[in-house]
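Bump. Still looking for YaeC family lipoprotein structure tokens.
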Amino acid sequence: MKKSFKCLLLAVETLSAFFPLLAIKNPAHAQDLVKITVVGDSTDRIWEVVQENLGDKVQVELVTLTDPVQANQALVSGEVDLAAFQHYAALAQYNEDNGTEITPITETFISPMNILSNQIDSIDDLKEGNTILIPESPTNRGRALKVLEDASLITIDAGVDPVDDAIYTQSRLILVMKI
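Sorry for the wait, here they are.
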């Protein structure tokens, strides 16, 4: 299985970009099936490509859950071998909150965060005083604020932690945390 597990890691690393693949223990035990928990189904196509690259060496079975806490609990309890759904900040927060020691073993991919609207078609259509909802969770709030800054919608003061501090300057928008 060690050779098969290395093939899985190689296939995943081929798609990598700062999104950790997590493990509680070394999942390289004697099996040809690796259960990986994910949250939601937005990454299914990526895992299909991983499986195509692995061929018959290792079978990947996705265990899709809707809640990151349940997904981490499945990993901790041994129901799954690996988890691939959260970024480092979310993992650190989960470990701190739950007294666990889930450890990244490699990086996979990063899921994009988008600016979405049912009312406007372009960022250029935003007007002063428009409202944008941002995630309440500190880890995703920081990502959302970075997306808004990259779109030149807000400016984050240098040296300020976008997760912990009120940081909006020169903003033409009203930002509201989603509760």
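Residues 32-178 form a domain with the D-Maltodextrin-Binding Protein; domain 2 fold (CATH 3.40.190.10).

Edit: fixed formatting.
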